[in-house]
Amino acid sequence: MQNSVGHNSVQEAVDIAHEEEEKKNVNLEVLDDVEETAQQPVYQIRPHLHEKFKPLSAKEIIHDVLFEQLATKTYDAQAAAQWTKDIADIIERKIKDLQFKRYKYIVNVVLGQQHGAGVKIGTRCIWDAEADTYAYDSFINVRKR
User: Fold this and answer.
1) pTM of this prediction?
2) 13 and 21 Cβ atoms separated by less than 8 Å
3) Domain ranges in the chain?
4) CA distances (Å), 85 to each of 48, 50, 92, 107, in order?
5) Phi first, then psi: what are they for 39, rounded to 5°?
6) Distance CA 28, CA 54 (A)
7) Distance between first and last Cα of the chain
8) Per-block average pLDDT, block size 10, for the chain (145 residues)?
9) What's 52's DSSP letter?
10) Which helix (DSSP H) or strand (DSSP E) does residue 85 occupy?
11) In 10 A of CB 84, how many CB atoms?
12) Fold topology of 47-144
């Protein structure tokens, strides 16, 4: 009987030691997971509220650039292609200077002569309604030839 009791005590001690070893291994695995998670990069998809694009600021820039570039010009079909590129570049540069983070900018400039004909332009995009927005302005030069 004593042998049986001694054997049980030894077995219990072995079982306890085995359980403690398993707990250590589990704790080490948890620590490894925590360390891996801590080292993984965190991706921010949307800008913070103070970093959001401000359409009013962009609209002011667009308005000013259109006025500066077109107020003294008379429509010229040959020059219009270069004017649109120049205006788009200036607007893009000035809006980038506002440093809204996490945005890509699309600047679309259309020039046309007011000569009784209508113009229809359609654009489609895929965007995030919570973060993406737009700004626009129109300029009509009342100068006559």
Assistant:
1) 0.66
2) no
3) 1-37, 47-144
4) 32, 31, 11, 10
5) -90, -15
6) 48
7) 121
8) 60 72 62 64 78 92 97 92 96 93 88 80 86 91 66
9) S
10) helix 77-96
11) 16
12) Ribosomal protein S3 C-terminal domain (3.30.1140)
